[in-house]
Structures are given as structure tokens and as C-alpha cells.
């Protein structure tokens, strides 16, 4: 029950991504779908299987492991804190879209130039390290508990994660993808505007007008509607009071 309360406390984008990750894992475990149907495959994508542009970011493995739990823990904590720093859920989703697009560009590039080590079937670790890198940059002074034992400065966490993957999993390119794209996004979003007074990664206006602006208009209209309803209620109460007073005066006159 406590886990559900914690989950319910996450922002909307974080909850949605976690649900998608867990749902795909369950579907693989019950053998409704196979991991090969979700992996990054350029030939399959070009053949029309466009869901492979999204699912590789949501699949860690088809096998349960302690590493999977740690990855879920870190990405949920990092993503929820990042989402709270943005003005709206759409701004957060836009940054995630840019980061994932950058990782996909790297993946396509390495595929077409024939660099085999750079051709990754699953991009979950790249996505995770992208999110964690942004988290570490936005919260430099924060400390994080690693494996429920070690307390380390958050700013060093992406590099320690990279070292652990090299030591135990013998695969670093996934982490490098995420850290590299995370650094580019952070620099364009935070550092670049300080020097050139322009935000290249700003949410496009047409997306804001499409998803956020109507909500703001509705919120602006709701107080007026509520105010009119209150005025109507007050008016009815005054009319009733006047009628009662009028009846009392008539009785006194009689």
C-alpha cells in the first residue's frame, strides 16, 4: 500500500513512463510479446515498425534482476525531480523527446557507418543515464544513497554508474550515449542561453497553444463561472429574506 502511495505521488510523466516500462516487462514475462519485437532494428523500422523508435527506451531486459530494480529506482527518483523543475508536464516531455531523438540519431548514424559496437538493440540504459545526468546537473549539491549503503554527491553519480557498468556488465556505450546527449541538452538548455540570450530547446509555441493554452483559458473561465454561481446563490438568498420580511410586515399591519 505504501508503494502505491509513493507511486501516486509521482508526477504524470514519471508515472506514465514507469507504467509503460513495467507493462512491457510483464508482457514479455507472460510471453505475449518477445523482446525481439521491441528492440531497436533499423531495417524493421524502415519497413514500417515505427514503435521500435519508442520501445527500446522502455525495455531493460526480459529477465528479472537486481540491476533492473536499481534502474527503476534511480530513473523514477531522477525523472520525478526533473519533472517538478519544469513549468509543465509538456515542457518535461519535450526535453525527453529531444534527448531520445539525440540517442536515436547516434544509433542510426552508427548503423549506417557500420560501427558494430555502437549498434545497440536496447536503449534503456542510454535513456536512464540521460535522465540521471540532467538530474545531477540540476541538483549539484544533493547527495544520493547508492545501493542503500553509500552516500555520494549526486554530481558524480553518472560517472560512478558508468564505471560500474564497465566493471560488471562490460558495456559502456549505452551509458556514454546517455551522458553525451544529457550534456548536450543541459548545455543548450542552461549554458547557451546565458551567453546568447536565446533558448534553442524552448518548447515550440504551437505545442504550447495546442496542449497548455486551452487549459489556462479554462482555468481563467472557471473562477468567473464560480463567481456567477455564487452571485446567483446570494441573490436567491436575498430574495428569500426579502420575501420573509415582507410577509412579517404584512402580518404586523394586519
TrEMBL record:
The keyword Membrane applies. It is found in: Endoplasmic reticulum membrane. The chain crosses the membrane at residues 6-28, 92-113, 119-135, 147-170, 176-196. GO terms for biological process: endoplasmic reticulum unfolded protein response; ERAD pathway. Pfam families: DER1. It is a multi-pass membrane protein. GO terms for cellular component: endoplasmic reticulum membrane. May be involved in the degradation of misfolded endoplasmic reticulum (ER) luminal proteins. Belongs to the derlin family. This is Derlin. It comes from Entamoeba histolytica (strain ATCC 30459 / HM-1:IMSS / ABRM). The lineage of its organism: Eukaryota, Amoebozoa, Evosea, Archamoebae, Mastigamoebida.
Amino acid at each position: 500500500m505504501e508503494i502505491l502511495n509513493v507511486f501516486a505521488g509521482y508526477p504524470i510523466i514519471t508515472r506514465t513512463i514507469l507504467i509503460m516500462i513495467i507493462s512491457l516487462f510483464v508482457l514479455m514475462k507472460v510471453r505475449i510479446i518477445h523482446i525481439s519485437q521491441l528492440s531497436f532494428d533499423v531495417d524493421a523500422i524502415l519497413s514500417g515498425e515505427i514503435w521500435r523508435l519508442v520501445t527500446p527506451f522502455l525495455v531493460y531486459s526480459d529477465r528479472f534482476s537486481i540491476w533492473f530494480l536499481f534502474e527503476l529506482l534511480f530513473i523514477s527518483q531522477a525523472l520525478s525531480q526533473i519533472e517538478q523543475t519544469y513549468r509543465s508536464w509538456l515542457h518535461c516531455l519535450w526535453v525527453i523527446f529531444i534527448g531520445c531523438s539525440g540517442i536515436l540519431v547516434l544509433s542510426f548514424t552508427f548503423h549506417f557507418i557500420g560501427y558494430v559496437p555502437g549498434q545497440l538493440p536496447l536503449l534503456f540504459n542510454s535513456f536512464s543515464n540521460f535522465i540521471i545526468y540532467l538530474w545531477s546537473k540540476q541538483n549539484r549539491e544533493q547527495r544520493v544513497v547508492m545501493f542503500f549503503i553509500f552516500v555520494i554527491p549526486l554530481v558524480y553519480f553518472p560517472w560512478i554508474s558508468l564505471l560500474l557498468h564497465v566493471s560488471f556488465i562490460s558495456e559502456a556505450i549505452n551509458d556514454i550515449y546517455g551522458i553525451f546527449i544529457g550534456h548536450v541538452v543541459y548545455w543548450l538548455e542552461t549554458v547557451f542561453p546565458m551567453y546568447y540570450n536565446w533558448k534553442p530547446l524552448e518548447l515550440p509555441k504551437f505545442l504550447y497553444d495546442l496542449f497548455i493554452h486551452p487549459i489556462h483559458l479554462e482555468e481563467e473561465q472557471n473562477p468567473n463561472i464560480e463567481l456567477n454561481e455564487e452571485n446567483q446563490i446570494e441573490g436567491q438568498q436575498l430574495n428569500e429574506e426579502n420575501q420573509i420580511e415582507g410577509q412579517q410586515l404584512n402580518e404586523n399591519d394586519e
